[in-house]
Amino acid sequence: MSSKVKFQLSAMMFLEFFIWGGWFVTLGPFLGNNLNASGAETAMAYSTQSWGAIIAPFIIGLIADRFFNAERILGVLHLVGAGLMYLMYCSDSFAVFYPYVLGYMILYMPTLALVNSVAFNQMKNPSKEFPLVRVFGTAGWILAGWIISLAFKWDAIENIEAGFLKNTFLMVSVASAVLGIFSFSLPKTPPTVSKDDKRSIGQLLGLDALQLLKDKNFLVFFISSILICIPLAFYYQHIGTFLTESNVENSTAWASLGQFSEIFFMLLLPFFFRKYGFKKTILVGMLAWTLRYLLFSFGDSGELFFMLVLGIALHGICYDFFFVSGQIYTDSKAGERYKSAAQGLITLATYGVGMLIGFWVAGKIYDEFVQLDGTALWEKVWIYPAIFALAVFVVFALLFKNEKIEYKT
C-alpha cells in the first residue's frame, strides 16, 4: 500500500468517526435542554442508530455490493447526510428533528461497512495494515470531543443553556460534506457481487448462521450479547446528560477518555485472551459494566470525581473485552462457510435488536427518576444497568461451558 493510499484511507477513517463523535455524545444534553425532549423521546433519537444498523445490510447487500463502487456510494451517502445534518441544526422542536435524525442514521450506519470495504480492498495484509489506519478513526472521535469542549466550549453549562450545542450539527454537516466530496477521490472499490447473484433477505441479514444456535455455548453467547447491549445503551444515551447535570465542565472531552481507553485495552486484549481464555475475558468485560455503573451511581463532580473518570476509563474493558472477544469467538465457531453471515447476525442482534431494546429501557428508567427541576436522580438511574449487567454475568458464568478459542487478529 503506497503512502498516498495510506494517507487517503487514514483521512477517510478520521472524518468518518469525527462525524459520529461530533454529535452523538452531546445529543442527549441538546435534546433535553434545547428541544425539551423527554427520556422516551431521547430514546427514540438514539434508537435511530439501531434502525440504521437493521437497515444497513439491505443498502450494502442490495445496492453497494452489486451496482456501484463503494467509494461512490460512500460519497453520495455523506453528501445527503450533510444536508440532513444541516436540517437537524435548523430544527426547533423534537417533532421536526426526529425525521431528520432517523433519515441520517439510516444513511450513516451503512457507511461504517463501506469505509472498511474501501480500506480492505487496498490492503495485502489487513491484519497488520488495518489497525494502523483504523486508529485514525478513534483520533477523529477524540478530536471532535476536544473541539466541542476545549476549543469552542459549546458544552459549558452556561453555553448549553444558551443553545450552543446546536453548533455541533453544523460542524458535522461541514465535515460530512468534506468526506462526501473527498470520497470520490478514494481508490476505486468495484462491486464484489454479480448483479445476477440472487441473495435472499435471510442471507443479507446473516440468517444463514442461525443454525449455529444449535450449539448450546453459542446460543448462550448470542443471547448474552443481546442482553448486555441493554446496559450498553444506558451509557451511550445518558453519559452526556449525566455529566452535564453533574456540573462537569468539558464533559465531551472527559467522555472521549473512553476512546483512549479503547486503544489501551485493545493492545492488552491479545495477552489477556491468550493467558485466561475466552470465557474469563468475556466475564471480565461483563463485570466491568457493573463496576462502571456503580462508580457513576456513587461518584460526583466534587471530591468523588475520580469515580466518574474511572467509570469512563473502564469503557475499553467493557467494549473490547466483550465485543471484540465476541467477534473472535463468532469467527472461530462459524468457520469459513458462515464467517460473514455469523458476524452479520451478531451485529444485527447487538447494534440492531439489543440496542433498540436498551435505548427504550434507558428512556423509561430515566423518565421514572426525573425531578421537578428537570434533572434526574442519577444514583438511582445507574443502579438498574449495574444490576442487569451483573445478572447477565451470572447467567453466562453458569451456563457457558469453557472452551479453548485461539486468538485471531
Overview of this protein structure:
This protein has 409 residues and is mainly alpha-helical. It is 77% helix and 0% strand. It has 16 helices and no strands. Helix 1 packs antiparallel against helix 5, helix 1 (3-21) runs antiparallel to helix 8 (167-183) and helix 2 packs across helix 3. The longest helix is centred in the last third of the chain and has 54 residues, at 315-368.
Rg to the nearest angstrom?
A: 21 Å
Largest sheet: none
Mean pLDDT, as a whole number?
90
The rough form would be described as: globular
Per DSSP E runs of 2 or more residues, the count of β-strands stands at 0
Helical segment count: 16
Fraction in beta strands: under 5%
Spans of at least 5 consecutive residues whose pLDDT stays below 50 are none
Q: Give the class from helix and strand content and strand pairing.
A: mainly alpha
Oligomer state of the chains in this structure = single chain
Written as H for each helix and E for each strand, in order along the chain, the element string is HHHHHHHHHHHHHHHH
User: Percent range for helical residues?
Assistant: over 70%
Straight-line distance between termini: 19 Å
